[in-house]
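hey so i finally got around to running the thing on that chain from the lab meeting. sorry it took forever, my laptop kept dying and i had to restart like 3 times. anyway pasting the input first so we r on the same page abt which one it is
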Amino acid sequence: MLAKLRLLSAVVLALTLPLLTNAFVVDRDAARITLPVFKRVNMTSTANLLEIDQARAKALRARAERQYQADSPPKDPVTDKIVSYVARVGVGSPLTFFDLIVDTGSSNIWAGARSLLYVPKGSPQYQGPVAVTYGSGSFAGTEYGSTITLSPDSPAISQSIGSARLAMGFNSVDGIFGIGPANLTLGSLPFSPNVSIPTVTDNLYDQGFITNKLIGISFEPTTNLSNPNGELTFGYTNPDKYTGILNDVPITSTNPSSKYVGINQTTTYGTESLPILANTAGIVDTGTTLIMFASGAFSAYKAATNAMSDSATGLLKIVPGDYAQLESLFFEIGGFKYELTANGQTWPRALNTVIGGQADGIYLAFGDLGSSSSEGLRQSEQSSGLCYNPLHERY
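ok and heres what got predicted. didnt touch it at all, straight out
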């Protein structure tokens, strides 16, 4: 897993599913399915970015521990995510296309947020009610057996799809394209709470379209509000999207991060290796925007950077003089060390006003998770201790 380095032209993450600790081998002759991904910024959102990611972290913990009722939406949903990474997916036959948020922190696929009571075309197979609660909203509806198409030249894949009759918090997209582990679907079928739903990666593999349960995720830096410069690859990794080698690291055994794409890592700051976070578990989550540190680590990072809390955005803010002194963050993951440069730690200035900040302000893309590192889930697009969000770029 690669940290987001500003020296690289792209961010690349390779995931093997099911989540095993043994090394994987990429078969260059395997079937290759590529799905374009683009960033979408919600200009109408008034939600606080930090609050959204904190709410998501709570929902992730609850889902892993199955401490919520699948058919009960959150009492105080945080709506309208500011930054999303979206793929256009075709459903049914003839095809209906939907813009779905790419999410490694969940595994259900559903549509209908902007066109409720959607029923897949063709001959969908009724499978019963379905519901999922997210930190940024929820949906409830009906699960159908249908087909999906991931690109114009890819085959139709048999896939279970949720059709929303109620959706909150997804006004700017049509639904979710969950690509996490299949166990995250447990509890989403109220009448069959112990039954999981095969993911798109499972079905691609089982139906013979790919020979490796492998997902590649890449996203190139951009300052545009919407830009189709990312991609998902199934069954292979695109060698044009990275330099060097992709390192294989084991999934953490620490709960609840182990239920997701979880990693153990140690975080230090600067050339003096100032401790920020001792070896601990976090998750890879494309659905989280910020780098969310556990409270102790967040305080250490805030002090190291001489940052101030900004009430308008919920982020840390530094003055130009402090930015000139800002050093790199280093993440040691699976024996490999990755550097996040000073520029990589800042929120894109072109998007400052989108989050309620000053146009010329310098904001750090980190948040306080509001929990201790002993909980086993530090979440962020890169963090919680560190949650790596492979699609969120910095400038």
